[in-house]
Design goal:
4-stranded antiparallel beta sheet, Ribsml_uS5_D2-typ_fold_subgr, ATP binding, 6-stranded mixed beta sheet, alpha+beta, Alpha-Beta Plaits, Ribosomal Protein S5, domain 2, 11 helices
């Protein structure tokens, strides 16, 4: 744990797990410009971490490998953590919501297709709700999350799920298994609007499951293999490193390799965490300038 968070100076902490799009099908586009999506989503045990404590005035501090890339946004008040704090405080206008020091340990790459900012915003909502002793109806919290971004309601759950619409229609998957995984990112920015703009078609087939939901790890892996990420082909056109990255992960005998979200993060599923850790270590030696992380995904809560 980061030394700042290990010092015991904060009242509570919240994990912000990386969001992994195991599949992403683009179904259409609404009149307001939002794309209609079907997504199979899981969450990694690796991610950012936030800490909270009451303070004399609002504070926000950063640490972690990718913290320097967020400093300018934080100073300008554009960070999603600060927006989540302010929006929640507005909703709690009848409840005392005193100043708070929020610390973000930024371990995930920025704008990388694994929901880092959205996960941070969701963790902020969870953490401040606890810190301020607020008893909000679940639907109210979900509405706040959706105002912050289409991915935030999913990250609020941080459990395996299917999301439809723009991400607001969520079905939890209580029997979903955990997977050993390597995450990789070439640390090259990919514009999400540009990826969507380059889609060859926006009315692709929906996310379909067999007549009965898959049971167990092996059936789910076969199902994941049969699905796709419609954003991967245009993202590869924009960022050639994605193809190289996917090839490197696949060369380590990953069972399934795919891009997450709009990129540029790719994941590989492995049989065991030991295999994933060995693969991540080898990939890091091959490309020390890139990001590689072995992790496991969070299982459903049956």
């Amino acid at each position: 744990m980061n030394a700042i968070l290990a010092a015991g100076d904060f009242d509570l902490t919240e994990e912000a797990p990386a969001k992994i799009n195991l599949a992403l099908h683009v179904m259409g586009r609404r009149a307001d410009g939002y794309h209609l999506l079907d997504m199979l989503v899981s969450f990694a045990r690796h991610g950012d971490r936030l800490a909270f404590r009451t303070s004399e005035h609002d504070e926000f501090s950063l640490s972690g490998r990718f913290a320097p890339l967020l400093s300018a946004d934080a100073e300008a008040g554009n960070n999603l953590v600060l927006k989540a704090r302010d929006l929640l405080r507005q909703v709690l206008f009848e409840i005392d919501a005193p100043p708070v020091h929020i610390h973000l340990e930024k371990n995930l790459p920025i704008a990388s297709g694994i929901g880092g900012g959205s996960a941070d915003a969701a963790a902020t909502l969870r953490g401040l709700t606890r810190l301020w002793g607020a008893a909000l109806p679940e639907e109210t919290t979900k509405a706040i999350a959706l105002k912050l971004g289409a991915d935030v309601p999913m990250c609020l759950a941080s459990r395996p799920l299917v999301a439809r619409g723009i991400g607001e229609a969520i079905e939890l998957l209580p029997d979903f298994p955990s997977f050993s995984m390597v995450l990789g990112n070439p640390l090259v920015g990919v514009s999400t609007p540009e990826v969507f703009r380059r889609l060859s078609r926006k009315d692709n087939p929906p996310l379909l499951f067999p007549s009965r939901m898959p049971q167990g790890r092996d059936e789910w892996i076969e199902t994941i293999r049969s699905l796709r990420n419609d954003l991967e082909p245009p993202a590869r056109m924009i960022c050639g490193e994605i193809s190289t990255l996917a090839g490197l992960i696949g060369s380590q005998r990953a069972i399934v390799t795919r891009m997450s979200g709009s990129g540029a993060t790719c994941f590989g599923i492995f049989d065991t965490i030991e295999q994933a850790e060995a693969a991540a270590a080898l990939l890091h030696r091959q490309r020390p300038d890139w990001y590689f992380q072995a992790t496991e995904t969070i299982a459903g809560e049956a």
